[in-house]
Amino acid sequence: MRDLIRLLRIILRAERRSLLRGLALSVVVLAMGVALLGLSGWFITAAAAAGMAGIGILFNVFAPSAMVRFLALGRTAARYGERVLTHDATLRALSALRVRLLMGLLHSPHRHLERMRANAFLNRVTADTDALDGALLRLMLPALAGWGVILLSTLLLWVLVHPALALTIGGGYLLLPTGVFLLGQKLATKPARRAEAAMQAGRSRLIDLIAGRDDLTVYGQIGVATDAVLSAFSRHGAARARLDRTERRAGAFLDLTAAAMTALALGMGMALVQQGSITAAEAAIAIFAALALGETVAPVRRALAEIGRMTQAARRILPSVETEIASSQGSIRAPSGSLTFDAVALKRGQGGMVFAPLSLTVAPGETVVLQGPSGSGKSTALLLAAGALTPSAGAVRFGGLDPAQLPLETRTQSIALVPQRHALIAGSVAENLLLAAPNAPDAELWQALEATQLSHTLRQREGLGTRLGFRGAGLSGGEARRLVLARAILRRPRLLLLDEPTEGLDAATARVVMTGLRRACPDAAFLIAGHRSAETEGADRCVEVIRN
């Protein structure tokens, strides 16, 4: 629960004004409901008493009738406003939370990001943020509004009716439903977590089944994959059934609480009327108020059904969100100058070092090529230079600063890394390029494409509006490679890290592309992991990476 409370505080700070207005309207809705029933009870009882006393003609029925209508109409209007404000604020808060979550994940260790599966990750992020929707709308706001109205009703019953009745009704509604919630939370947390885990597993397996149905069919595994999907959803159904039983029992206890408070108010009210401490009409106020306060504790039942997935979602999301907040609070100058490796080495898990201690210097405007057999650690060296990995020994410095310690935004201002596997999105060529430079004009985009020898190809199609499919489908491997290189130079980096940049290109095109990259970034330091002649011909130095 502590993680959930901390995360709700972050969300509340982001949308404080709208959520507080929504909370105020929630209090108004509940308070009007209690006032409506209390006034109605007083009106009916007082009118009956006046009639029995023979003074009914003198009883003013117009003012109470008008107040009853005002409360009924006002409650409807307040309910509408509360729903609009709270849902709008919640959607905006969760939208900002998703952005913070994704930005925070960018600060995760590189190896952790590499192990992520897109389907499972996106499914989990969607489920977690949806769970927090319920935390706001079905837990935090109803709880605060309910407590507020119970305390307000207790105060008014103390003044208008009798202190003993006020304390009995208020104390009962504060203590008993809270106890039901705390006990129900313990019973509901485990099945709620199991239901959520089974649902996520079922969704991920179903997506994998659909995406890989051809291969699964060829290898005769379609039945096994189908059984795995059905097994996950079966576990979800079993956990939901157990959770539903807990929810029904909690609902029954809450209904009994409301009935008990009403009966207790009736009994105490009759006793006080017989003692002459209050009138029958005043007793009716307490009885109907006790009946109406049952609405304030009704959300406890719904909250119990979701408390498990709420707390689990908060536990997963909070670290990334707090990382993003911490990183956004600091600002460090963008580094520039030489890149240096001083006897750098990186340990491989529990084993030895990936490569022998590596030392090199790349000055602005220089090109250094890392050479070595496949698996020697050239790509790892680039990740160290980008700050994605932290060396186990030695030191990496760019402009005198450790790139791994720089905030993400500061690091990306000066360093661009193009790994072996290109990353393109479904959309137009322009949309892919604008990821690196959102405000770049079309002329600048074309210059980058010309530097990578891709402009002629795209002019023969639909230019910058050429549509690409999932992961850049629609381009050949070499064309996709050049588009990623064009995107990298749009950032105007001071350090450009390239992992086999000309792979998939013929020798002539590769040489022209390398020349275009240097011409586009004349003052940048180039560190390249490569082995082709097109990559080494224009290098100032070649450094051998020795596998350990």
Task: Chart the SSEs and their pairings.
Blueprint: H1 2-14, H2 16-52, H3 62-105, H4 110-115, H5 118-160, H6 163-211, H7 213-218, H8 222-275, H9 280-292, H10 294-297, H11 299-328, E1 339-345, E2 358-362, E3 367-371, H12 378-386, E4 393-398, H13 408-414, E5 415-418, E6 427-428, H14 429-434, H15 442-451, H16 455-459, E7 467-468, H17 477-490, E8 495-499, H18 507-520, E9 525-529, H19 533-536, E10 541-544
Parallel strand pairs: 3-9, 3-10, 5-8, 8-9
Antiparallel strand pairs: 1-2, 1-4, 6-7
Helix pairs in contact: 1-11, 2-3, 2-5, 2-9, 3-5, 3-11, 5-6, 5-11, 6-8, 6-11, 8-9, 8-11, 15-17
How many helices? The count is 19
Rg measurement, Å: 34 Å
Return the string of H and E elements. HHHHHHHHHHHEEEHEHEEHHHEHEHEHE
The number of E-state strands comes to 10
Low-pLDDT parts are none
